[in-house]
Design brief:
By secondary structure, this protein is an all-alpha fold. Helices cover 73% and strands 0% of the residues. It is elongated and about 85 Å long. The N and C termini lie far apart (61 Å).
């Protein structure tokens, strides 16, 4: 497989039995220009590349490979124009790119575009251009980005290589690619539930890129891309990156429209949308709207007792925060009864924590403290959530020392694992105290 546009042009020309002079004549460029491309001294512009591709009589797959190897923002524009003519099943114009990784790393730090621009001493317009892959940062800026965004060793190696594309189009057959993609999805699923944090943004984006290219080649496998979006929803939700999770929730929902039945995993798509909808204001209107989103999707979700109970628990929490206490108590009780029938110890423990939070908010903190117990689940997000519930209860009971200790532990876990939702909740608490 060619590693540069010059090598690709030479190999494609030779496969078609053309000399440099013959191809140059057909493409209406000089033979010396074509020779410099093939020796990698210069690279063609988009119009020059298009003329050469037409002269070579390339297929759609070959055209995409050539654009990828040109590896420049202007090649992305051509890819998007091509995708508009032949829409991708996901509706996305292009697979994840270098800019998507930069944006993900910025959000991991909880920074705005303005904050990153200030740290780099560049304009906000420049940062937005990088994140949209309309321009690639200079080597100096990439080194600084790696430092200020606390990139992992794997992320640093990728960023400094300056590739536009996270994952190339598949070179295997459709069947081989499907097997490989399924294997990678299962591996990623295990990493999500093991609570892996470091380097996950890059891994998830690379998996998404692989799925995007595969589904463009084989649209009937769109459910595989939906599973990748679901994994993204799970990981970003568990790590409190609710806006990222919500975005993937809507992407997955678009692909769900063509599904014959409601997959169990799709519950994560709906949950991500509901949780994201409540942020960042979390006023009564948005919280109530989020509860109503979950209520609307209860019928298909009810195929799974665990997911049905989960929806009722979140509905109860939304209503309790919105001070609609009667609805909150009803939903909490419904969710608790359902999970008792399911016989799932881990979910039962989640239900106890959620029930304790609701009881505390509706004025029953002592009963809440009686049923609350530390989770055995090792996921950092689960531990942080338990500590935040304990903090709420202790504040209501006036136990300031224990509340302060719980909040400090929650903040330590949230900072260590970049759980932005918990960090935002802590900032709200601290601002209210001031």
């Amino acid at each position: 497989m060619a590693q540069s546009i010059g090598a690709w042009i030479r190999q494609t020309r030779e496969r078609r039995g053309l000399s440099q002079h013959a191809l140059a004549q057909r493409a209406r460029v000089s033979a010396s220009t074509l020779n410099r491309w093939e020796r990698e001294q210069t690279r063609p512009s988009i119009p020059e590349l298009e003329q050469t591709l037409q002269a070579l009589g390339v297929s759609s797959e070959e055209r995409l490979e050539a654009l990828r190897l040109l590896d420049a923002p202007r090649a992305l524009i051509t890819l998007q124009q091509w995708t508009r003519r032949q829409p991708h099943p996901s509706g996305e114009l292009n697979p994840p790119l270098l800019g998507d990784l930069l944006g993900a790393l910025r959000r991991r730090q909880g920074w705005s575009v303005a904050q990153l621009a200030a740290a780099l001493k560049v304009s906000e317009r420049s940062v937005r251009g990088w994140e949209r892959s309309q321009a690639i940062p200079s080597d100096e800026h990439l080194h600084t980005l790696c430092y200020v965004l606390h990139a992992s060793a794997e992320e640093v190696a990728f960023l400094l290589a300056r590739p536009l594309w996270l994952e190339p189009p598949p070179v295997q057959s459709v069947c081989e690619e499907a097997v490989l993609l399924n294997t990678r999805i299962e591996q990623m699923r295990q990493m999500v539930w093991q609570g892996v944090t470091e380097g996950m943004e890059l891994r998830l984006l690379a998996l998404e890129a692989q799925a995007w290219w595969h589904v463009r080649q084989c649209p009937r496998h769109a459910d595989m891309l939906r599973e990748v979006y679901t994994l993204c929803c799970q990981w970003y939700t568990l790590h409190g990156r609710v806006q990222d999770a919500e975005r993937y929730g809507y992407r997955g929902l678009r692909l769900l429209e063509g599904a014959k039945s409601f997959p169990r995993s799709a519950a994560w798509l709906i949950m991500a949308i509901a949780i994201g909808n409540a942020e960042p204001k979390r006023d009564a209107a948005r919280l109530t709207e989020s509860a109503e989103i979950l209520q609307e999707w209860l019928p298909p979700v009810s195929q799974s007792l665990e997911h049905e109970s989960w929806f009722y628990r979140e509905i109860a929490e939304f209503y309790s925060e919105a001070r609609r206490y009667e609805e909150a108590i009803r939903a909490a009780e419904q969710g608790f009864q359902i999970i008792q029938r399911a016989g799932n110890p881990a979910e039962y423990q989640h239900a106890l924590v959620s029930r304790a939070r609701v009881l505390s908010r509706v004025g029953q903190p002592r009963q809440a403290l009686e049923i609350l117990s530390p989770p055995v689940n090792p996921l950092p997000a689960t531990q942080a959530n338990y500590l935040m519930v304990l903090y709420e209860i202790c504040c209501t009971l006036g136990d300031e020392a224990r509340a302060s200790c719980a909040l400090a532990q929650a903040e330590q876990i949230a900072r260590e694992h970049a759980i932005q939702r918990t960090l935002c909740a802590i900032r709200r608490v601290q601002q209210a105290a001031q």
